[in-house]
Amino acid sequence: MKTLRLVLFHASRLLLGSTFVYAGLIKADDPVAFAGQVANYQLLPYAWNYLVAAILPWLELICGALLILNRWVRPATLILGLLNLVFMVALVSLIVRGIDIDCGCFRPDAEVKTSPLAALWRDAGLMVLVVLVWVLDRRKNRQESAHG
Prior knowledge:
Blueprint: H1 2-29, H2 31-40, H3 46-68, H4 73-97, H5 116-147
Helix pairs in contact: 1-3, 1-5, 2-3, 3-4, 4-5
């Protein structure tokens, strides 16, 4: 059973980390276009869209890389979990307000857009990974300290 938990922890950690590294790289590649996507949510003052577009991709990239490298797993998971929760609230806001835009998370110039509802389901899956990494890392640390 310990082996299954360990495999599940590392698989979840690597999948979550690589997902956010990929998302961060795409957004960091064109921050002006990403700022436009942030503005489409109609949640922030105009100038803040650029601030979010300048900071968010690098935060995703750094936290994702930390997960891949198996370093500072709990802080990186906490930050990505909070970001993901904010994304989910923003997506629910879009759905409630009837705004149908591409979420801007992965393929900003894709011909096939991701609806807010589809993005919400995807983010729910990412939240499952966040919870798995958080819980399994805690158990892994407890077991290591008990044997150390």
